[in-house]
Design a protein that fits this description.
The complex is a heterodimer of chains A (160) and B (444). Chain A is built from 3 helices and 7 strands, in the order H-E-E-H-E-E-E-E-H-E. With 160 residues, chain A is of the alpha/beta class. Chain A has one domain: 2-Layer Sandwich (Beta Polymerase, domain 2). In chain A, strands 1-2-5-4-3 form a 5-stranded mixed sheet. Chain A has a two-stranded parallel sheet with strand order 6-7. Chain A starts with a helix and ends in a 36-residue tail after the last strand. In chain B, strands 1-2-3 form a 3-stranded antiparallel sheet. A 3-stranded antiparallel sheet of chain B has the order 6-7-8. In chain B, strands 4-5 form a two-stranded antiparallel ribbon. By secondary structure, chain B is mostly helical. Chain B is built from 19 helices and 8 strands. In chain B, a hairpin with a 2-residue loop joins strand 2 and strand 3. In chain B, 52% of the residues are buried. The chains are: A alpha/beta (160), B mainly alpha (444). At the A-B interface, strand 3 and helix 3 of A face helix 1, helix 8, strand 6, strand 7 and strand 8 of B.
């Protein structure tokens, strides 16, 4: 079975970085420490038996009062095996930072920009990390749970 | 004395954010060397409405109107995608008829989306009549959508555990001829465009993307299939009842604008096939005729219930018109899940017995509502532009902790800048048209 194969391979190669591995609602999930993300992703993409060649989605979740506070969530898909895998990497601290996957998938570029824009998570090695949906003068990162939904932003443009 | 020395430098040009040839608000800043594009920077976000933040502040049911506004040309697919994600998280099943309805309405939406995409593209290349024909066809389909959902665009037809109401009486009889009419429009458009010298020359070989590049960028949908990869969520991991439908996945060869046009044209034909099969095989709902032919006004029914005359309400088939259409018991059972966690009971029950009334309030009240167990889910459906995924994290309360929408045209727009490099300035218009950018889902 490919599901167990994926998990077994990760366990074998990155046992020390693996925090948790489980399958919820038929979706394999691995939680790994953030320092290993680039190596794990490279292995998943290039391993001839796994071939997770698609980075379908990249996002983050703010668990707020939990420690570590953030989690970057990657959804991978293997076209050859028709398999999906969720990889999560917990991030803590006030200045969360994780390695960028732009060297592996060109599609990671905009996804990472969006996560930076919305959560303020920095991606090390990203070629062009700037806001994407919001404008440069925007203050704060709105998808963080401590950003109030009613917060108003200062007006931009020429003063009248 | 005049100098004969020529100065060679590139020119910077802004296209958009508000340009007649941009369907949607987006800015492309290009660097031009003569007519050749040397670099292109795509800037998005003009239509950002904080979809994901808003979803976190309301209940699950309150998210549906927001999902309408993601891809506003095919809102039904977004509705069902979100509903299916929550259903998977809660582990509830929906009735078979409901799944068929979802397939029928999704495919009608897909046709609408492709009609809009090709029509607008053709108009920008000068084929204005094609635009008019296709919008006319879309209008017929939107009439069907309006008949079932009550709205043309802001449908909010999906529900966690079902759909708002059953198909209207005689829907199949009206739908089949409409599909035939759409077919004839497609034939007409095919005659006008496919062998049209101007259209062909503007589309062929323009906006090329290789298979590997498309996969690297995470591109899905017709844009990917035109490059020769037969990936379609409906086939790869069938949802609803797509596994019972007989349809093909059209695949292109060249990965250029022309192939994307051909793929979309063929997909519409396949969608029509799916709708026709679904209409043939949809399991019968309850009969739509009251045995005694009685029609009771909702107010009359409520009054009867208040004074305790509930026996008649429970035994008779009553038709509630018009505001509560589809909420009657006999229709309700066919389109709504049996799980009490998510089901709003039929109105006759609510008006006539205390259990149903409590159940109703348990589902709609603030702080109670639909409460999936703690956990997370990613659920993908095939949107009109590609894989539309919803990633939902639940903390066990009635509000989602996090809703993430994977917008299908986001990766395509990310790749657009690269696709444009090396092509002519005038090629931006057909290439951008073939992306079928929908600002609502792109910027959320």
């Amino acid at each position: 079975m490919t599901e167990t194969l994926t998990l077994a391979k990760i366990k074998q190669a990155f046992g020390a970085s693996l925090i948790e591995a489980h399958s919820q609602l038929g979706h394999d999930t691995v939680v790994i420490s953030k320092s290993a993300i680039l190596d794990v992703a490279r292995m998943l993409k290039t391993d001839p038996e796994l071939q997770y060649n698609y980075l379908m989605d990249l996002t983050a979740v703010d668990y707020w009062k939990r420690n570590p506070r953030f989690e970057v969530v990657y959804h991978l898909y293997s076209l050859a095996n028709n398999q999906r895998l969720r990889v999560k990497a917990p991030l803590g601290g006030n200045e969360p930072e994780i390695d960028s996957l732009t060297s592996l998938w060109a599609g990671a570029n905009w996804f990472e920009r969006e996560v930076y824009d919305m959560f303020g998570i920095r991606f090390k090695g990203h070629p062009d990390l700037r806001r994407i949906l919001l404008y440069p003068e925007f203050e704060g990162h709105p998808l963080r749970k401590d950003y109030p939904i009613t917060k108003r932003q200062p007006l931009i443009g020429p003063k009248v | 004395m005049a100098s004969t020395e020529t100065i060679s430098k590139t020119m910077f040009l802004n296209i958009g954010p508000s340009h007649p040839a941009m369907h949607g608000t987006v800015r492309i800043a290009v660097e031009l060397d003569g007519e050749i594009i040397r670099s292109a920077d795509v800037e998005i976000g003009y239509l950002h409405r904080a979809f994901e933040k808003h979803c976190e502040s309301g209940s699950y049911t309150q998210c549906f109107p927001y999902t309408d506004r993601l891809n506003y040309v095919s809102p039904l697919i977004n509705n069902f995608g979100f509903a299916a994600a929550v259903e998977k998280l809660m582990g509830i099943e929906v009735p078979e008829r409901c799944n068929y309805i979802r397939v029928i309405m999704s495919e009608i939406s897909r046709i609408c989306d492709h009609l809009t995409s090709i029509g607008a593209s053709a108009m920008e290349l000068g084929a204005f009549s094609v635009f008019l024909y296709m919008i006319k066809a879309r209008e017929w389909l939107w009439e069907l959508v309006e008949e079932v959902t009550g709205a043309r665009l802001t449908v909010s037809y999906g529900r966690v555990g079902g759909v708002k109401g059953d198909l209207t009486e005689g829907f199949a009889e009206r739908c089949r001829p409409t599909l035939q009419k759409v077919r004839s429009v497609l034939k007409e458009v095919d005659d006008l465009l496919t062998h049209n010298r101007i259209f062909y020359d503007r589309m062929k070989g323009v906006g090329f993307i290789a298979q590997e590049d498309a996969i690297e960028h995470g591109i899905t949908g017709p844009f990917l299939r035109a490059s020769g990869v037969a990936y379609d969520v409906r086939k790869a991991s069938p949802y609803f009842v797509y596994d019972r439908m007989n349809f093909d996945i059209p695949v292109g060869e060249n990965g250029d604008n022309f192939d994307r046009y051909l793929v979309r044209m063929e997909e519409m034909e396949q969608s029509i096939r799916i709708v026709e099969q679904a209409l043939d095989t949809i399991p019968e709902g309850p009969t739509n005729v009251d045995p005694e032919g009685r029609v009771i006004e909702p107010s009359v029914m409520a009054d009867l219930g208040k004074i305790g005359k509930t026996l008649g309400l429970l035994t008779n088939e009553v038709l509630i018109e018009p505001t509560l259409q589809g909420s009657e018991k006999r229709l309700h059972a066919a389109v709504y899940t049996a799980s009490k966690q998510a089901r709003i009971p039929p109105k006759e029950q609510v008006y006539s017995n205390i259990e149903a009334l409590m159940n109703h309030f348990k589902v709609v009240m603030y702080g109670h509502g639909i409460r999936p167990p703690k956990g997370e889910v990613y659920y993908a459906v095939e949107g009109a532009n590609g894989e539309l995924g919803f990633y939902i994290v639940s903390d066990g309360t009635d509000k989602p902790w996090r809703v993430r929408c994977r917008p299908p045209c986001f990766p395509i727009m990310a790749a657009l800048g690269k696709i444009l490099i090396g092509s002519q300035l005038a090629d931006i218009v057909p290439t951008f048209g073939s992306v079928n950018m929908i600002g609502g889902e792109l910027d959320r």
